[in-house]
Amino acid sequence: MSTYLPTLKQLQYLVALRDHGHFGRAAEACFVTQSTLSAGLRELESLIGVTLVERTRRVVRFTPLGERIAAKAQNILREAEELGEMARAAGKPLAGELRMGVIPTIAPFLLPTLLPRLRKEWPDLKLYLREETSQAACDSLHRGTLDCVLLALPFGCGEVEEADLFDDGLFVAFPPGEAPAGQVRPGEIDQRRLLLLEDGHCLKDHALAACNRPELRAEATMLGTSVHTLVQMVDNGLGLTIVPEMAVTAGILEGTGVIARPLAAEHASRRIALIWRKGSPRRKEFRMLAEALKAAA
Questions:
Q1: Which of 117, 150, 155, 291 would you call most buried, defined as having the most Cβ atoms within 10 angstroms of its Cβ?
Q2: 2-60, pLDDT tens digit by residue?
Q3: Which residues constitute the signal peptide according to the record (predicted)?
């Protein structure tokens, strides 16, 4: 075996530069100085005898070979990390560090209830949370920067395993004085006044799928960056929106004149689940975590 092999640290620098596209931000992500990161990458290029990155004052550009090597390096880093995960999984379950992604349409409504119970049940668990949109969280999961994700399904997230927690119903939120007496059918929604989240939030796709009206995607006004923002817009009479039941239960409408009614449709709910990379050595731990989350919710 050749003794001139790249180190994991060098591969980490390469992947960080590819992810951030900037030497300073990549160095910050690796907790090293920019000069240390740059020197490590030059050593890597010298070691394998090829140029991986074209450096200019304004831009960092990977060569085609550099892109392929960075992709391979990402897989190697993930495999190396799973070696440590195997050792942790063989020891005390749900102890040590765990990095969980949570999407913004779940985090503020569910975590205040879940976290105290998790701390009580698993005092040795160091849970680090990262709030990201659905696609960004899935990307982070497959890059290895997250261990698991609290996600709303259905959503295409690649090769993952999942544990269902519960179904979360969808409600139509109306401005003060406009709400009907009972449930709302999709055909009763005025597409010209419908406010939805920006692209990247799976709640938008779940809402449109539940309504099963193709014209809504074209005509709905997608302005909101969060469910809270949408509710405030509705409260000011700018339109109506669709909110998850967990948000209503958590009191998102308190202090407003907004009234929410259940959406009466065949698929008027989203499935809340914990997902992780397929084949992860910590799958038993994640299933234990899912059971704890389900009980707390």
A1: 150
A2: 556 888 898 889 988 888 888 888 888 888 898 999 999 999 988 888 889 888 767 78
A3: none
